[in-house]
Specification:
binds zinc ion, three-stranded antiparallel beta sheet, mainly beta
C-alpha cells in the first residue's frame, strides 16, 4: 500500500511506516493507525480535510491568538 503522506515514526523517525488501518469519521477526518516497520512502534495520525470556503461564508473574529473563524449569518 502506497501512502503519499509523510508520517515519520515518532520514536526512531524512520520514514518507512505501515498503515495498519484507516478510519474515516463522518465529518471527513481521517484517522490512521500506523506501525513502524523498524522499531514496531504504533501510533495514530489524523488527517483533516482541507476545504475551500468563500469569504462570505466565514468571518474572522478577533486578532492574534484570540482570533477565530465563525460562520457568518
Ligand atoms: Zn520506529
Amino acid at each position: 500500500m502506497v501512502n503519499k503522506i509523510q508520517a515519520d515514526c515518532p520514536k526512531c523517525s524512520v520514514t518507512r511506516t505501515r498503515v495498519v488501518c484507516t478510519k474515516r469519521a463522518p465529518d471527513g477526518v481521517t484517522i490512521r493507525r500506523r506501525r513502524c516497520v523498524i522499531c514496531d512502534h504504533r501510533w495514530y495520525t489524523i488527517q483533516y480535510p482541507e476545504i475551500a470556503v468563500s469569504n462570505t461564508e466565514i468571518k474572522w473574529v478577533g486578532t492574534g491568538s484570540n482570533a477565530r473563524f465563525t460562520p457568518s449569518a
